[in-house]
Structures are given as structure tokens and as C-alpha cells.
Amino acid sequence: MARLLGLLVVVSTMLVGCGKDEQPTASVGGTAAQPSEVIHWKLITTWPKNLPALGIAPENLAKRVDVMSNGRLKIKVYGAGELVPAFGVFDAVAQGTAQMGHGASYYWRGKIPVAAVFSTVPFGLTAQEMNGWLLFGGGMELWRELYAPFGLVPMVSGNTGVQMAGWFNKEVNSLADIKGLKMRIPGLGGEVFQRAGGVAVAMPASEMFTALQTGAIDATEWVGPYNDLALGLYTVAKYYYYPGWHEPGPALEAIVNQAAWDALTPDLKAIVETASRAINDEMLAEFTARNNAALKTLVEEHGVVLKRLPDDVLAEFKRLSNEVVDELATESEIAGRIVASYRAFQKDVTHYHAISEQAYINAR
Ligand code: CA
Questions:
Q1: How far is the CA of 360 from the centre of ligand 1 (A)?
Q2: Ligand 1 mean position to 351 CA, how many Å?
Q3: What tens digit of pLDDT does each residue of 135-175 get?
Q4: Domains of the chain
């Protein structure tokens, strides 16, 4: 309990909250005021502060929670590196240094390999399908079970839709060109890239710009036109490849420290979950609305060369992706259940989407 109290900064505010339902208290000047508790949380992120969409999402989450809770839960957002480094978010929230975090579960692959499945699987589910699996296909229950031993409660909190394959300073004309190529590419996609002969590097956004500029890496993936334009990646790389085979619909996560979560009243819990769900919808809508215009700007104003990855590269990446996921399933009992659930969902949804989403997009 002492630890719990230490995790939360609970401040009794003075003379705030003059709502008509509150019991009047004796006060000077006859104004009625009921001291109320305000909970203060820190939210740390893996994103650069205020990066469009990804970095703004947790800011919007905090604003919504503030309004919906009538100021009872105040969340202060910190960009990557402000309190802890980008890749320190999981541990810092688990330890209670911050009550909440926003990032992507594949960043924790070194700690929990199967966690990557809850962000994205190469050649796996699209954003729409990922939401289906998480919210109605048993995915969320498995995710919560996986994070419970770390004292973390995960929520789905954003999706970029299909990403771009990335920015390259060398042309990829065949599988041979992947050999020895140094690329910043996280998650299971990074593992696949490595097996295909490339050199996969994990680094946060803050480092990849310089790494590409100095030639320390030959390529990087980030998200898609809207975000990549904002980061200025076109100034340090020439070729922009598609499709984002490695991230077909990555879900972002909001994680909450279990003790901080347990201390919330049911209405505040519902508010945090609802705000997170709203951000999830909003982000995909924003990327969908803005990617096209950003791509136009990249190509027409900045001379970016748009290219498709060759078929032999995609075929080999797909073969290796299956191999990587097969191995992932054997790492633990829960990993086996997570992979089985994900694959069963993908099989079913692919069958239906062949005659719905896919058939329609091909027909229009
Ligand atoms: Ca990415």
C-alpha cells in the first residue's frame, strides 16, 4: 500500500469544484467548495514529443481523460528521452516511475518475444482485422495475460494502417540487394530481414535520422507518408519503397501500471479505456486522410522516387515470416496460444475478406 501511494501523486486541491451537486462546506465569503482529489499521472512515450499522429495521440488521450473526468485525472505526457529513453518505457511503467506509457509492443521483443504479435506480424492482419482480433477475437485477453506478470495493463491505442516498406539509399532490384544491407527495422520484420541476409538495427526515431545521414545505416522504415514527411526522412534517403510487408496494421499500445490502475475508481477506469479506444480510431482515420496528400508532396515537391519491392524479395520475406512465427510459437506455452489464436483469426478473416474488402477494392 505504501508503494502504491508512492506511485500516485495525489493532490488535494483547495477550493476547486463548485459543481452544484457537491455538499457545501463552511467557507469564507459564503462560496461552497468541496475539496476533491485530483490524481496526477505521468505518461511516457516511445515517440518524439508532439510528432504528428504518433506523438499527438497520447496528448489527445490526456486531454480527453481530463475533460471526461472533469479534471479528476490529470495526465502529463513526456516525449521519448524526457523522463526515460524511448525503449525504457515498458520497464519504467512496470516499476511505477510513470503510471502510463504509449508505444508499440514489438519494442519489447527482447524481453518478451511474443509481445510483437500484439503490434504487428509480417504478412499478418491489417488494421481493421487487428481490431477485430483484439476486441472480439480473444486477442486482448491474451495480451492482458501476457503482461500481467510484469504488473502492466495493456490497451489498444492507435493504428497506422499498412505502412511503407521504408526509405533506402540503395536500390533493391532483387533479393541479392538485401544481402548486407543495414536497415533500421524493428519487431518480427527485423528478424525476417536479418534472416534474408540483411542487418537489422533497432533504434528510436531520434537516432535514425543521423544514422541514415552518416551512412551508419542504408535504410530505415518508419511509418508512412504523413509521419515520414514530418520527420524529414526524404532529406536523408532517396528511394521510398512499398508495400509495408513487415507492418500491415500495427496496433499501438497504452500500458498502465497495475497498482495505479487498481487505485482508480470504476468510472475513471472506463474513462481511460474509452479515451484509449478513441485514440485508436482517430489515429487510423488521420493517417488514412493525410497519407495521400503527404505522398504527393514527397514525390512532386521533394523528388522522392517511389518504388515497389521486387516479387522475389516479397516472396522470400513471406516465407521467412512464417518460419519466424513458427519458432515464436514454441518459445513458451502462452506464446503457443497467442500464435494459434492469431493465425486462426487470420485464416478466417482472410477467407471472408477475399470476398468482401479485397473483392470490393479490386472491383471499384
Ligand atoms: Ca514502422
A1: 27
A2: 26
A3: 999 999 999 999 999 999 999 999 999 999 999 999 999 99
A4: 39-158+249-288 (3.40.190.170), 166-247+300-363 (3.40.190.10)
